[in-house]
Amino acid sequence: MKKTYSGACHCGRTRFEIDADLDHVRVCDCSICRQRGALIHRVQPDCFRLLTPLEDLTLYQFHTRTAKNYFCPSCGILPFRRPRTDPEVWAVNVRCLEAVDLDSIPIRRVFGSQYS
Fold it and tell me: Is 53 in contact with 42 (CB distance < 8 Å)?
């Protein structure tokens, strides 16, 4: 069942909302995900609402430059991204969502390092 979650970066400058059924999170082993340590859940565009102008964030791209990694320019946290394997969806860092019991969400391992 979908629920609405509020999310933000560490300093609160970047804010967003999602509608999601947090039935799992993804942990990827690619170079950036491994170092970032994010727990990712993908949502469709109609389930993502950015409350901060996208232009206010810093964009980081590498390798094929298909993935778009958005960071808060103040605190450096990555609250969400557009993944290379499905650039139309939003991959949300569940660690940035309010009132989520991270230990209760099943983890799915993703092997993004195999696609580099």
Answer: no
Q: Which amino acid is at 23?
A: D
CATH 2.170.150.70 fits 3-115, yes or no: yes
Amino acid identity of 110?
A: V
Question: What pTM value is reported for the model?
Answer: 0.92
- The closest of 21, 92, 14 to 54, measured between CA atoms, is 14
Q: Which two tokens stand for residue 60?
A: 């980081």
| Residue-wise pLDDT tens digits, 70-116 | 999 999 999 999 999 899 999 999 999 999 999 999 999 988 777 65
Q: 107: which residues sit within 8 A by CB, 6+ positions away?
A: 24, 25, 26, 27, 39
